[in-house]
Amino acid sequence: MTTLKITQIGNSLGVILPKEVLAMLNADKGDTLFFSRTPDGIALSHYDPKIARQMEVARKIMREDREVLKKLAE
Description:
Shape: elongated
Distance between the termini: 39 Å
Structural class: alpha+beta
Strand order of the largest sheet: 1-2
Number of helices: 3
Largest sheet: 2 strands, antiparallel
């Protein structure tokens, strides 16, 4: 397990990702990462615009068809 310390970055707060973590994410300076909540905490992954678009569509469907999805889950 790697621990990260929150630090001041300009007017914001942030964390510095060690090289090992960047290698696991296949990420480098300037790349975009995707942050999401999971049942166990959070997940950080390499940003994929195609997956981001699919998630946007899924969220829209879940909002619009909330009652139908509840009935299906019963």
